[in-house]
Amino acid sequence: MFNTIHYYIYLMRTKITALKTRLLGGLKKKKKKKHPNTVNIVSRYTPKQKTEGSAGFDLIANLSSNNLLFRAGETHLVPTGVSIEIPKGKVGLLFIRSGLSVESPLGLTNGVGVIDSDYRGEILVPLRNFSASKRHTLLNGDRIAQLVILDYFSPFLKHVSSLNDTIRSSGGFGSTGKN
To answer: What kind of fold does domain 40-151 have according to CATH?
Structure first.
């Protein structure tokens, strides 16, 4: 009889343990699978792609004051508050937001910014007021640039005495005609 009681106690404990595992197991946080294209960032906000078809992530002005005045011809490095770990074999390209370029005299000083995969500092956007007479005020939180991350080809450059010939050859700007 003593063994039978112990056996039933053992069975009850086993069933209770199994029931607790089943009930509580569903409450445990499941590990999220890492997205295959995950890129690490350090930022107070997460840059967003505004639509499903957007190639670029919007970066905002992360100013220490409420605004930044651009006098005619002035250039400023505008902080975004974003640092990024771009994977090896990829490059980050910065473009001015089209709305900002149309609605203001601001543009990227060098046309396109390049962020190398080994850079870990804050992304700064070099904006210039291209107007000779107008001022422009940038507000804290304004969307100023788009970050596009692309694969790149890093070839070995080999010195040769001549290059293979083509129909165009060394013809440059306008050499293929107007239309």
So the answer is: Deoxyuridine 5'-Triphosphate Nucleotidohydrolase; Chain A (2.70.40)
- CB-count burial class (<10 Å; 0-12, 13-18, 19+) for 61: buried
Sequence-ordered strand ranges (E) for the chain: 40-43, 57-60, 67-70, 75-85, 90-96, 106-108, 113-115, 122-129, 136-139, 143-151
Based on C-alpha coordinates, what's the Rg of the chain? Answer: 29
Whose CA is closest to 107, among 78, 85, 66?
Answer: 78
pTM: 0.73
| 17-32 pLDDT per residue, tens | 776 776 666 565 666 6
Other C-beta atoms closer than 10 Å to the C-beta of 96 total 20
